[in-house]
Design brief:
Number of strands of chain A: 11
Largest sheet of chain A: 6 strands, mixed
Number of helices of chain B: 0
Oligomer: heterodimer
Radius of gyration of chain B: 13 Å
Largest interface: A-B, 27 and 28 residues
Distance between the termini of chain A: 41 Å
Helix content of chain B: under 10%
Shape of chain A: globular
Order of helices and strands of chain B: EEEEEEEEEEE
Shape of chain B: globular
Order of helices and strands of chain A: EEEEEEEEEEE
Largest sheet of chain B: 7 strands, mixed
Distance between the termini of chain B: 34 Å
Structural class of chain A: mainly beta
Number of strands of chain B: 11
Chain lengths: 115, 111
């Protein structure tokens, strides 16, 4: 079945540093999503990407949809303590119209920020 | 105001019991999902319903039975609970062409 490889598994950084994480897939997707999960909560959507090559920003976050449709990265600039959490990439392949394609998740990147 | 709400948040039960988790969304989405997150935080889809119709049924034991009485609700019933069923179960919803909105999860512990 489809698998997503997300790296790194964990990061421990100093406040103010930039962070980069990425996902690669064995098959193509036509949607890439990045989520953040805080302890005791569900994943929250950060950025959605719908076109190959698309580069999208949301505040200090920037994500790109790889041109091959098999990869995506997320950058966080100038990290702050509240960036702590687990970041998940997710890919979706929709067949035809509609949104019935399942969302496949990466293994997650645990980010810790030292003040 | 909660967009996707699921109850209960915590559920501790003995092996062999039957339990249900309820989910409701007030976003007007037409697709709802159940995901399971294991102890390593891996998220895996279990079921998906679109307008009350089952469209995704992953390899899940048939002790797990989803029910969607209307497109705003998707409940999960689990029979004969086993220790390995312990996990966090997330409900989610979406509308065509957009990402999922997740509930805050139900932590199930089977003892």
């Amino acid at each position: 079945g489809q698998q997503l490889n997300q790296s790194p598994q964990s990061m421990f950084i100093q406040e103010g540093e930039d962070v980069s994480m990425n996902c690669t897939s064995s098959s193509i997707f036509n949607t890439w999503l990045w989520y953040k999960q805080d302890p005791g909560e569900g994943p929250v959507l950060l950025i959605a990407l719908y076109k190959a090559g698309e580069l999208t920003s949301n505040g200090r976050l920037t994500a790109q949809f790889g041109i091959t449709r098999k990869d995506s990265f997320l950058n966080i600039s100038a990290s702050i303590p509240s960036d702590v959490g687990i970041y998940f990439c997710a890919g979706q392949f929709n067949r035809g119209s509609g949104n019935t394609g399942k969302l496949i998740f990466g293994q997650g990147t645990t980010l810790q920020v030292k003040p | 105001d909660t967009a996707v709400s699921q109850t209960p948040k915590y559920l501790v039960t003995q092996m062999g019991n039957d339990k249900s988790i309820k989910c409701e969304q007030n976003l007007g989405h037409d697709t709802m999902y159940w995901y399971k997150q294991d102890s390593k935080k891996f998220l895996k889809i279990m079921f998906s319903y679109n307008n009350k119709e089952l469209i995704i049924n992953e390899t899940v034991p048939n002790r797990f039975s989803p029910k969607s009485p209307d497109k705003a609700h998707l409940n999960l019933h689990i029979n004969s609970l086993e220790l390995g069923d312990s996990a966090v179960y997330f409900c989610a919803s979406s509308r065509t062409g957009h990402g999922y909105t997740f509930g805050s999860g139900t932590r199930l512990t089977v003892v």
